[in-house]
């Protein structure tokens, strides 16, 4: 074996910047402060669209049930927190 890795003819590979860009994020949905669901969303998602996705989630609907929603806090694109009574 001739030479070593540090003097290899091709050198180190260069990072491709297009592959380093992340197009999606994991959004977390909480009900009364406890994580109930998470899903991948575009990082450019609007707050109202994220809230609609969270409310439509089967896991979230199961925990909310017939109880009244007191407050919804949306921090797009990463978090939806739903506060319910009882």
Describe this structure in words.
With 86 residues, the chain is α+β, with helices and mostly antiparallel strands. It contains three helices and four strands. The chain has helices at 17-20, 47-56, 58-64, and strands at residues 24-31, 34-42, 69-75, 79-84. A four-stranded mixed β-sheet has the order 2-1-4-3, with helices on one face. A hairpin with a 2-residue loop joins strand 1 and strand 2. The longest helix has 10 residues, at 47-56. It is elongated, with a radius of gyration of 22 Å. The termini are far apart.
Secondary-structure map with pairings?
Elements: H1 17-20, E1 24-31, E2 34-42, H2 47-56, H3 58-64, E3 69-75, E4 79-84
Parallel strand pairs: 1-4
Antiparallel strand pairs: 1-2, 3-4
Global Rg: 22 Å
Mean pLDDT: 90
**Major β-sheet annotation:** 4 strands, mixed
Give the SSE order as H and E letters.
Answer: HEEHHEE
Structural class: alpha+beta
Number of helices: 3
Determine the fraction of residues in helical runs and give it as a percent range.
Answer: 10-25%
Q: What is the percentage of strand-forming residues?
A: 25-35%
Terminal-residue CA separation: 72 Å
* Extended strand count: 4
Strand order of the largest sheet: 2-1-4-3
Low-pLDDT regions: none
Principal-axis shape equals elongated
């Amino acid at each position: 074996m001739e030479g070593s890795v540090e003097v290899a003819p091709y050198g180190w590979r260069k990072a491709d910047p297009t592959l380093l860009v992340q197009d999606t994020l994991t959004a977390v949905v909480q009900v009364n402060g406890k994580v109930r669901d998470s899903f991948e969303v575009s990082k450019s998602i609007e707050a109202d669209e994220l809230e609609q996705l969270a409310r439509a989630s089967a896991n979230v609907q199961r925990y909310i049930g017939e109880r009244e929603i007191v407050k919804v806090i949306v921090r797009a694109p990463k978090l939806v927190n739903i506060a319910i009574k009882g």
